[in-house]
Design a protein that fits this description.
Blueprint lengths: L1 E6 L2 E4 L4 E9 L3 E10 L6 E7 L4 E3 L7 E6 L4 E6 L8 E10 L6 E4 L3 E6 L1
Parallel strand pairs: 2-11
Antiparallel strand pairs: 1-3, 3-8, 4-5, 4-9, 5-6, 7-8, 9-10, 9-11
């Protein structure tokens, strides 16, 4: 069984910072993709940041220059450093990884979600 456990959300004032973490555990053979998504009330879930196995990164336009995604392959953990937070960043943040297990095709796994609230 594979589990993704998130931590680091909370309430912060506009302009502040938060760091999210997501640790994968279980029978992991390989991790092929690592992403952070968010879903605000009444809106669809959107991709915020992605990091490939080679370290390449991509960001949604509204967070470029403010958010940084990083990973620690030895710990099967990814992070999302969020700086200069804005009220529009308020959402539930989900980590997502495409993980391969021995004898199985790679599939997507999701964290439980962590609430980020930015007050004005």
């Amino acid at each position: 069984q594979v589990q993704l456990v998130e931590s680091g959300g909370g309430l912060v004032q506009a302009g502040g910072s938060l760091r999210l973490s997501c640790a994968a555990s279980g029978s992991i053979l390989s991790i092929y993709a690592m992403n952070w998504y968010r879903q605000a009330p009444g809106k669809q879930r959107e991709l915020v940041a992605a990091i490939g196995t080679g370290g390449s990164t991509n960001y949604e336009d509204s967070v470029k220059g403010r958010f940084t995604i990083s990973g620690d392959s030895a710990k099967n953990t990814i992070y999302l450093q969020m700086n200069s937070l804005k009220p529009d960043d308020t959402a539930v943040y989900y980590c997502n990884m495409k993980i391969g297990k021995f004898g199985y095709s790679p599939r997507d796994y999701w964290g439980q979600g962590t609430q980020v609230t930015v007050s004005s």
